[in-house]
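Batch manifest line 91
LIGAND: zinc ion
JOB: complex structure
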Amino acid sequence: MKVPKIIRTFCPKCKTHTEFTVAFYKAGKRRGARKGERDQAQRKQGYGGQKFPMQHNQAKVTKKTTLLLQCKECKHSLMREGLRLKKAELE
Ligand SMILES: [Zn+2]
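JOB STATUS: finished
ARTIFACT:
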């Protein structure tokens, strides 16, 4: 699906409709020295291993694509609910 590069929608900061630039949300890079990563590494040590169930048989074939919108006037960012798309591109 083609997603427009500019969307006109309500900005809660400007309290009116403004133009927003559109990008796809990407999760941040995993950093090994962070608390959660260190804790998980500690938990997985030794006999026993994985401490919570991991899902292996996925029912869905696509992942949700979250849109990241940024107001052109006040630079306020907001996210749009994820869409299940096999292929998403900005037009
Ligand atoms: Zn705004």
